[in-house]
Amino acid sequence: MANSPTYLKKILPALPRAAIYARLGFKKKTTQLHPPDERETDRLIDEAASLIVVQGAFLRSAVVRRDEHCVELADSAAFESVKLAAFLRDCREVLLMGATVGAAILDAVGAKMLAGDMKAAVVYDATASELADAALDWMMDFVNGQLRREGKVLLPRRFSAGYADFGLQNQKIFHTRLDLAQIGISITKDCLLIPEKSVTAVGGILG
Question: Is the pTM of this model over 0.85?
């Protein structure tokens, strides 16, 4: 089992166009979008995607102790969360993940806002958010391909800091253990990741 992170300097997830439209508030069965508006939105999505370089990092770690309140990993890192402990109850290993879409797209969002082009800013922002999530999906698929050769599999869902009782302070563990500075991610004293649209998650490994 790897005990140091794997870095992916350029992830190429499929552009999650349907998810971007959903984030923008469009409902497939109820929202009517005129063809010129749809073409313009698609153009902005493609424009935003061209400004994004998705990078990621992942690490497998053994679970050495677990009770109803805490999950302790092989490197002595410990996640305190009742919900996470229940989520990982059948797992002897976890997958730690982190990804970022970089700073250029956020600079572009700011520039569009300053120029008063709010539609472009909103579409750029939604595209960045969904590509960050798509990067985690991509990594889970990639690691699942490796795990199948060992007779193992990832749980289909993942758990992120800030969800339920899994406090945002756990971002420190992700940042340190994955050494996310290697892909340009820093962390504030309030445990926010910089650049924005940087994401982390833990997945459970069965088998």
Answer: yes
